[in-house]
Amino acid sequence: MIKINKNEWSEPLKIILGASSQAYPSWIQTQEEELNLLDRSDWEESFNSRKIRAILAEHVWEHLSYEEGMKAARICYDFLEPEGYIRCAVPDAFFRNKEYQDIVQIGGPGPKEHPAASHKIVHNYKTITSMFEEAGFKIRLLEYCDEHGEFHYKDWNPEDGFIYRSLRFDHRNKNDELGFVSLIVDAVKEMSE
After folding, report:
1. Is residue 86 part of a domain?
2. Which of 7, 45, 76, 110 could cysteine-pair with 1, CB 3.0–4.6 Å?
3. Which pLDDT score, from 0 to 100, does residue 66 have?
4. CA 81, CA 83: separation in Å to the nearest integer?
5. Structural domain contains residue 82
């Protein structure tokens, strides 16, 4: 269960899943031990009836199988306010870069200590869209590669959820060369009819 101080309760609730060292003003950092994506009781104990405005997940969903990702998306959906969203970034299966694909592959490139060792899926824009849509979300594609490896970009506001591993912010993208990209989506809970 995460601890939320009284000041944070008065603001729109914004959560970082698997935050590690990510810390942004007005965002609440969580780790898996505090808020397990797949354990509804963690969410119930942490938020009760309080709804969340935004969830940020940078390179988290690839550690879940497709089915686990769907379960996690459904739990998040239930705890988001109407028009709330998940900004999700994952490795992109359609990025044409062999070194990148070797690093992000299922099971990772090396020892179990490597961050990618627990990767269970490498999404493309079709699989991640399908997964979130099946959970009830409307999808906005922000950054992704298509089947031909062509990179697509839609301007997005980092204050709505900062993604380091992105076109604008990753240090490996320079001199008009893509060194590291993420598939980035906003999964939005639409207003009830």
Report:
1. yes
2. 45
3. 97
4. 6
5. yes
Number of H helices, E strands in the chain: 5, 7
| pLDDT digit string, tens, across residues 6-17 | 455 567 899 999
Phi and psi torsions of 98, nearest 5°: -60, -45
What global pTM score does this model have?
0.93
**Number of structural domains in the chain:** 1
* 193 within a domain of the structure (yes/no): no
Q: What is the pLDDT of residues 98-156, one digit of tens each?
A: 999 999 999 988 777 788 899 999 999 999 999 999 999 999 999 999 999 999 999 99
CATH of the domain at 138: 3.40.50
Measuring CA to CA, which residue among 42, 48, 66 is closest to residue 133?
Answer: 66
Asked if 12 contacts 6 with a C-beta cutoff of 8 angstroms, the reply is no
* Strand order through the sheet with 52-58: 28-29, 14-16, 52-58, 80-90, 183-188, 138-145, 151-153
Distance from C-alpha of 61 to C-alpha of 57, rounded to nearest angstrom: 7
What's the pLDDT score for residue 110? Answer: 76
Strand (E) or helix (H) holding 188: strand 183-188
Residue 1 lies in a domain: no
Structural domain for 27, as ranges: 6-188
